[in-house]
Specification:
Length: 133
């Protein structure tokens, strides 16, 4: 089985490591961890083209290992995950979250970390490109 996926006229293998944090780094995710994970799975199902390979929910941030297609922008993936989980958590845990965020229905910071995950190091790729032709 090929490690690469094909779609239309493209062959690809795209993985992202995403990290985002709770607003003000509040350590509040432990009691709602399972619901956060379920909400991320719901966002994944709604989007359809990208998938969560692995995830870890810490008390104040999350790590996600995402497999995507060339059409999937990391910023849109993060937006879908944050938007769906914020909505779901406020619907299910309103009283709990109101203890931490009393003015607005917040959950996540605006920013995020994204890194691509590849098979070879930067030096190997640079050497390969340099030695072509």
């Amino acid at each position: 089985m090929s490690r690469y996926k094909t779609m239309n006229h493209a062959k690809f293998r795209m993985y992202y490591h995403l990290i985002f944090s709770v607003k003000f780094r509040r350590r509040l995710l432990d009691p709602i961890r399972e619901d956060i994970e379920a909400s991320f799975r719901r966002a994944e199902t709604m989007q359809g083209s990208w998938s969560i390979r692995n995830m870890a929910v810490d008390s104040d941030h999350v790590h996600l290992f995402i497999e995507a297609t060339p059409q999937d922008r990391p910023s849109e993936i993060v937006h879908a995950l944050k938007q769906t989980s914020t909505y779901d958590m406020w619907q299910k845990h309103h009283d709990y979250l109101s203890k931490f965020f009393w003015k607005e229905h917040l959950l996540w910071t605006r920013g995020y970390f994204c890194s691509t995950v590849g098979d070879v190091s930067e030096k190997t790729l640079e050497r390969y490109i340099k030695n072509q032709g």
